[in-house]
Write a structure and sequence with these properties.
434 Repressor (Amino-terminal Domain); 0% strand; globular; single chain; mainly alpha
Length: 66
């Protein structure tokens, strides 16, 4: 699974819009949109917040299998 798919799944499970996810992570909606379109990847601080806020493991976000 690509990080885009993981983010979309997390948004679906929480019922978040792009704006709601942006608010939770402290970024703007345009940034979330670019992530979801695959134009940008989340930076370190955003990745860390995604782990903390959603309780996922780092490998889960980027589809790395052990």
């Amino acid at each position: 699974m690509e990080y885009v798919d993981v983010l979309q799944q997390l948004m679906y499970e929480k019922g978040y819009t792009q704006q709601a996810l942006a608010d939770v992570l402290g970024v703007n909606q345009t940034t979330v949109s670019q992530w979801l379109l695959g134009k940008k990847k989340p930076g370190y601080d955003s990745i860390r917040l995604i782990y903390e806020k959603f309780g996922i493991e780092p490998n889960d976000l980027f589809g790395v299998k052990n």
